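Recap from last week: sequence in, structure out.
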Amino acid sequence: MANRVTDLRSVAALLLSFALPGCILDAMGAPEPPEDGAIDSISQAMSACAPSSTFKFTTSGDVTTARIGGDDVAWFTKGAYTVRMIGPPRTFDPGAPAPLVTTTTWIRTLDAPFDAAATSSQDLRAWLNAARAANCATTMPDILAIAFEYIEGTPNDAGYEFGADFHDYLGIDWDPPDADVRAANPAQLGKLDCSGYMRLVFGERTNFVHDGVRAKIPLSLHEAGAIPRTSREQYRSGPGKILVPFRTEPPGAERFHGEPTAEELSAIEIGDLVFFDTDCLYDVPTPSCGTDWTTISHVGLYVGQDAAGDRRFISSRIVADGPTVANTGGFSIFNATPGVPHAYPTWFRAARRF
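Predicted structure tokens:
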């Protein structure tokens, strides 16, 4: 992954242990003249890592926001496992010719769905300080970094095959809580379909350890509240909160060609799942599209806005032969952009926060 993700965690660590007056040391220990931009970025990285005893928490609707002074630094959602945090800036490379994605957002998961009423401020402060420290370490990737570990050119590069679940990719048998043991399919070793990829990233990989507990979202075949097997069931009964309910173009309404509205886009944050009906055709006089959640056929993870301002998602796809955030087999964006092929924006149907 090192050739795909550039961050400032190592720089911050170097500053803490090797800083000399008036200079910044590179990875080999050689002094380099500081640049204003580098200093600003390093300062931002270190301030996002520093422990704090002054977190303040406010709850509005389903979201509890953590603040330090006047700055929002983390967001917890009622019933959801994922926590969105501000951390050191980093840049993800989707692969040519897609623009880079630079973000200060980090996604960690709790070991149980968030409940503000049942969680003390003291426990939240302890969790946040531990999570912020993890964001500045080099041994505990968050959800976004984990997702990028499987794209083309990485050591874990996954291929695509319909029906390939996380345990098929890993070559291990899986004993779901609501069914008999599922044996790994040897023909699907190293491969993932779209929903299997989400299950690997959120439910199999550990993205945080706190008080000895590994943060993984439970997996099942069909149980509500765990991550089920298919994209349509992940929308309907997965953990967390539906952000954009399955939607269609209302009869008689002005044509919107399926693209998400500004209001819907504003509800979707980095780390959320986006769902598509890839059999829908809005570029014909009489659109032929599904009218309920059973027609959802694809799921991806929103990773942030690229350098062009488009909203990129990462997913495992047929034409790209595995996880991608680039443009092979259709641009990996779900907002409507003039001049960009409108495949996934017109296929967009819903969003959920795990």
